Amino acid sequence: MPLIARASIDQVQAAADMVEIVGQYTELRKAGANYSGRCPFHEERTPSFSVNPAEKLYYCFGCGAGGNLFGFVQAKENLDFAGAVEYLADRYGIELEYEESSARGDAERHRRERLRALLEQATAYYERVLHDAGAAAPAREYLKQRGLGDDVCRQFRLGFSLAGWDKLREAARAKKFSDQDLLDAGLVVPGKGGRPYDRFRGRIMFPLADDRGRTLGFGARTMGDEKPKYLNSPETPLYHKSEAVFGLHAAKAAAGREDRVYVVEGYTDVLALVQAGVHNVVASMGTALTEQQLKRLARVTRNLYLCFDADAAGLGAMSRALTLGRKMGLSLHVVRVPDGLDPADYVLSGAGGEGFRALAADAQTLLQFHVRLALATHDLDKPDGRARAFAQLKGVLSKAATPIERDEELRHVADRLQLSAESVRYLLAGSGRSAEGGDAAGEGRSQPPQGGGAAAAVGGAHELEVRFLAGCLAQPQKGRVVLAAVDESFFATAETRAALRVVKARLEREGAGNTLQTAAKAAEEDDDGEALAEVVVRAGRERFTATVVDELFLRLQEAHVSRLIARLKVTAKTDESGKQGAELIRLQAVRRTVREAIRTIPVDEEPDEG
Ligand SMILES: [Zn+2]
């Protein structure tokens, strides 16, 4: 990977307008030094999301999402760091420079750029052929028959490959691309006499794009009975089948907004749904969803609605995707289209986008899907069919996310299998046992205790520590004094300890007169972006006076001493020297002093600094 030059990154950081970037996803209003709005990372009615425009940092008090400019673009546009820099450079017209890199790295980058250029040329060529060539009339007719209008075909840059052996090859060579370029891009196949020929002939071309809409490869479909019906690009330096998701570039914004994405099987299903106003839809490549595909989707939304054919292949694929997705912590649902129709036929048959959304509202959960699948695959009219369904369901029910969900499905099962009360109890007991061990181990275990005293205590400590650091940033003079008196042991979590380090370093730099180093830069370099973002955003949101900082400092000391006391109380019991007992008494005296100081803090009316 080529390294983008530090100076270029700084240029992009300086040029980008954080409010404009975030404003693409949520409406922002000015609120003090910050802007606030509804969080683009979680569903909410009242705004708890803040942006600090000067530092170019964001933080959500609802879900805890936070970070810098580049982190925001990475998360919302589903890009890596370099990709986010390139995206912003594009947007703000900045020419990036790359670090002096190895000759091989440079060659590699040039190679990829050349392939991208060729794929763009090929996309434009196939598009022109589809819309203008007389020989493409049957393809235009085919798309029209399928109910797909010109606009949506142009939006997804559909094309057509002519039936000859070297139509694309000739067009590309006229643009000075070599046979090697064409081979590397997967557009031609090596011929026997050394003369390559077009891979795609007489097919409708669907460009498979990356998250920025750049073509990486093609999916190509016949209109007749030629085999194979679908032909895709081979693996190339740019195109990897296991990562390809058709339509993700176009679906991203709507999927983020609605916090869900529909996954269908066919390219034309995507087009038909988009044409019907359902924009958050993508197609898997073939039926099996891979982990890489799920990861790409998960960066846009964690709510996936699968809408596959109800045939055996479709059901099997959904079942595997559901299991895989669950392991990745995704929320998966199954949308069933009635009468064996595919989604395209369904919306075009008059149901429209509204009809599809209504189906989605009735989507099944993972458990419901598996229960119905188990019931559907056995002959429930025969005793041995019921017995086999019964055995399978015992395992299925053990995978319920909650007891409530399990009980609901259990009622459905009992009804269908005409079970006795005793059999129901057996199913329940079995599912309970296996949920505590066996294959359910590790799922749902890693979550923190809900509403527990310990978790609540950590939450309170986090809040106090972040406010204290925010106060130090807002009142730098005071901040430097009080920060000199604390160390990492005053902070309860790794996150706030990391934030302490960044805030300390920053106040020291500013104290030394060097204010050029921005917080965003520090955040990126120290990889403590999230912790720092929360601090900075708070500093701009709350009105900190020097007195408030004093009070927070005292409260931080109180919490710190209290933690030491709690620890000592445990160890002092077994300590025979009596030293710990004496230390305990000393600390309790310190705590009384601190508490007394907190009680006597004056209430100030006006900010007394800054
Ligand atoms: Zn949020």
Biggest sheet, open or closed, and with what strands and sense?
5 strands, antiparallel
Helical stretch tally: 25
Class derived from helix and strand content: alpha+beta
User: Looking at the structure, what is the overall shape?
Assistant: globular
Oligomer: single chain
What is the rounded Rg? 30 Å
* End-to-end separation: 45 Å
Strand element count:
16
Mean pLDDT, all residues: 83
Q: Helical content, roughly? A: 40-55%
Spans of at least 5 consecutive residues whose pLDDT stays below 50 are: 431-457, 514-520, 522-526, 606-610
What is the strand content?
A: 5-15%
Strand order of the largest sheet: 1-2-3-4-5
- Report the bound ligands by name, code or SMILES: zinc ion
What does this structure look like?
- It is built from 25 helices and 16 strands.
- By secondary structure, it is of the alpha+beta class.
- Helix 19 (453-474) crosses helix 20, helix 19 packs across helix 23 and helix 24 runs antiparallel to helix 25.
- The protein is globular, with a radius of gyration of 30 Å.
- It starts with 5 loop residues before the first helix and ends in an 11-residue tail after the last helix.
- The structure holds zinc ion.
- Zinc ion binds at residues 39, 41-42, 49, 60, 62-63, 65.
